[in-house]
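Practice problem 4.
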């Protein structure tokens, strides 16, 4: 038993699952939407914009291709895709994020496990920093495959962790200590304390490859960006176009 007045380290709060996770993610993004873009720029030193451009460019689709920006948030990827000449539709769980989305493309509030789109309607799909927020990743990947036409392209931008010693040490301090502090000062401290912990939801690369294959994707590639600060997941919807 700890002595009176002594400090005791409490175990971290368990990460939510199921409907509790869906409700928490929706509420969290509603609350952080007004300053989401600002904090993204600060926490990545503006590098996220370069990574987003790389994500959109990796689709390599012809002009006027129809692209879904899943978990579109405030619309960064959508706007970049539109500048590339694509026709873009955005979808997000959070009404707050959609209210902060000032892009010209149409948007829909939607749960990734039940997308309100027909089968095989999109030529491409982009998704930025959202895999770990999906309640059931297997179901979400299946929905992505369902709405993509055979031969359609998937490009997913997600967080990662560097493997090199000094870079990894700096990353750990920044992501787990500095980012929550910035978030607490400028937005919602609880949300930005939760976001680094949510990385635990991400499967290892080998597992994610298998999950994508099982969902109906082929030619899966996963590559690090900026030494592993983020990662880009690319895949093609299997089947004949």
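Answer key:
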């Amino acid at each position: 038993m700890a002595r009176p007045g002594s400090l005791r380290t409490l175990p971290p709060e368990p990460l939510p699952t199921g409907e509790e996770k869906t409700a928490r993610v929706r509420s969290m993004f509603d609350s952080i939407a007004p300053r989401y873009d600002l904090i993204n720029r600060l926490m990545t030193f503006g590098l996220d914009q370069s990574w987003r451009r790389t994500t959109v460019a990796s689709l390599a689709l012809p002009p006027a291709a129809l692209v879904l920006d899943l978990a579109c948030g405030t619309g960064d990827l959508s706007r970049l895709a539109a500048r590339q000449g694509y026709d873009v539709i955005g979808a997000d769980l959070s009404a707050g994020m959609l209210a902060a989305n000032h892009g010209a493309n149409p948007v829909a509030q939607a749960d990734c496990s039940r997308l309100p789109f027909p089968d095989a309607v999109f030529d491409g799909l982009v998704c930025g920093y959202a895999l770990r927020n999906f309640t059931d990743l297997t179901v979400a990947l299946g929905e992505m495959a369902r709405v993509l036409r055979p031969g359609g392209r998937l490009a997913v931008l997600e967080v990662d962790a560097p493997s090199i010693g000094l870079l990894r040490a700096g990353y750990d301090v920044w992501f787990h200590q500095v980012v929550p502090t910035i978030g607490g000062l400028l937005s919602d401290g609880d949300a930005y304390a939760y976001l680094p912990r949510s990385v635990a939801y991400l499967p290892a690369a080998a597992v994610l490859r298998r999950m994508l294959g099982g969902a109906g994707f082929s030619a899966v590639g996963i590559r690090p960006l900026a030494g592993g600060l983020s990662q880009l997941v690319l895949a093609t919807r299997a089947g004949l176009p």
